[in-house]
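Structure, all two chains, one model.
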Amino acid sequence: MKKVVRGFYSVAYAVKLCKPNIICAYPITPQTEIVENLALMYANGELENCKYITAESEFAAASILVGASAAGARTFTATCSQGLILMSEVLFNAAGMRLPIVIVNTNRALSAPLSIWNDLQDSMALRDAGIIQVYVENNQEAHDMVPQAYKIAEDKRVRLPFMICMDGYKLTHAYEPVDLLDQNVVDSFLPPYSPEVYLTTKKPVAFGCYAPPHIYMEFRVAMQRAMERAKEIMEKVFADWAEVSGRNWGGHLEVVYPDSKNFVIAMGSIVGLLRKVVEELRNEGISVGLVKLRTFRPFPVQELRKSLENAEKIIVIDRSVSFGYEGNLSIELKSALYGMSPEVISFILGLGGRDVPKDFLKELVKNAILGKEKSGFKGFKEFEEVIP
Amino acid sequence: MLIEVRFHGRGGQGVVTAADFLAIAGFKEGYYTLSFPTFGAEKRGSPVASFLRISDEPIVVRDEIYNPDYVVVLDPSIFEAVNVTSGLKESGMLIANYPKSSEDLKAFLKTNSKVLTINATKIAMKILGRPTTNTTMVGAFAGATGLFKLETLKETAEEFFEGPLKERNVLAIEEAYRYMKEVCR
């Protein structure tokens, strides 16, 4: 049923259809309305076989989900920014324990200074946790990604936490038409979660226990192999989803105008703006295509190398920074393209919710293609640092 | 076809709701719609803006609206604090809650775009008993632009509001809609 709904609702409704057993969260802007919607559904008795637990912090929320997931429950939480960082100690554990917790992260900047607004710094800080990360462009994609996230995370060849990254405000607060899934579509796609090994008094096991040097490394190698398997399994799940739902979001990447000389690459909701920018520049006779990167972990190295094998120039749009180096996506992309020789220009913009107007972005991309714009931060006011 | 609308007002007046309401109504009229707020400090009284795009094609751009076709102003005291006509197309229109005439406001704002005023605060006080002008201005916008049928707005209000608010908001929408239809005749 196609309806105009807010981003929050598109996620909450999809979570409901996935029949989670335990939902546990701590409120944080701009995530709160996701779990508010779920709490309302829970209070109204719409969530069968489910318990909604309020926690005293994000740390506690993640801890409760680790216990629940280890006991064989399908689990959900949503968070962002400081909340995600507070969860991080637990989430690294969840990955190591191979627990398929699904997290919706409504991307928000990190403190300090305090910002409730959007960029990608929070999820980037969790890059190395062993959590699958997918970035969505709009609220339909966020909605569609929830059942896929469970299916991928709970696959026994994977068993890793899954983070759906959606831009705070730009998506969460937006009303737009979303085709809400039917229960029977989700039921036919997503089987119930029934792990072979879980916490039970009938057959006691331990999760995440002490691993001395003679055994620790093998667990970490297993995580890496699970990520590598996830890459293939995701492709299959994405394709199955296209069949079941009639909506094809592509694979780990979506490439628009693959035969272009120049490419721009980005993740998240800014991809929409770039679709328009690319159209307009092509109308001006400039050969430029677009790579929408959906999967950030596992990183689709081969797919990127193949899609960009004839690229002369690649413009990377980053909305986060690794201080002391450069934009995070730019780092990853250059590493993936090692041995190839396109020129890579990377822009860091839109930090802390600073709006990126279409015309501004178009000028940047155009000038980069024409060789008139260098890498670096864009769209900030030049200032003199005061060093006392 | 892409129509871009920017709403100005103050926190607590329903500036965000106005855009959201019209996003739902626009979809009912068969358009693709997108609405979203600016994300200022979430407190009553501070200037707030929200945005609405209406198109016959799927909407992919999510930047703020810098060159609106229409500007809708919910608060008559906002003009000193915010440059509401910023980027407004010359062919565009400003529809404002303002106690004086359209000519007065046009002269005050020194704009070449069309200006229409309605005393929405008065209507809201009369019907809702409080100066929440969003539904009144939704009605005024629809009446002035002809983009929405009154029936669609009523149907949207039925879904959007609950309890006694529903009926009174429908009345506010209707009065402003008819007023603007009359003015624009």
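The domain at 2-183 of chain B is CATH 3.40.920.10 (Pyruvate-ferredoxin Oxidoreductase; domain 3).
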